[in-house]
Amino acid sequence: MIVRKLDEHLMCYCKHDWDSHHHGVVMNPKYFDYPLTIQGMLAQECEHNQTNGEWYLNKGEEKYCRCNSFRPSSTYVQRIVKEWREKHPSRS
Prior knowledge:
The chain has one helix and four strands; from the N terminus they run E-E-E-E-H. The protein has one helix at 75-87, and strands at residues 21-25, 41-46, 50-51, 54-55. Strand 3 and strand 4 (54-55) form a beta hairpin.
């Protein structure tokens, strides 16, 4: 399989992009080669509902996003992550 470099243009299953999610620095060396690590960061919960850390959408609104961790919508990227987890069963 040809592995291309993953970048910030990834989309999540919640239909929001990588930059719309909160980023956390990867500190554990075991995860430095994790496929969804981009520039040393992992995407976590979606911040689509926030502006400068303050909520602007209510839970009842139609566009409210409940995504609590970035999951790639691309089947290609899902396959890369699955293969990585199979090679690193104790880490995933």
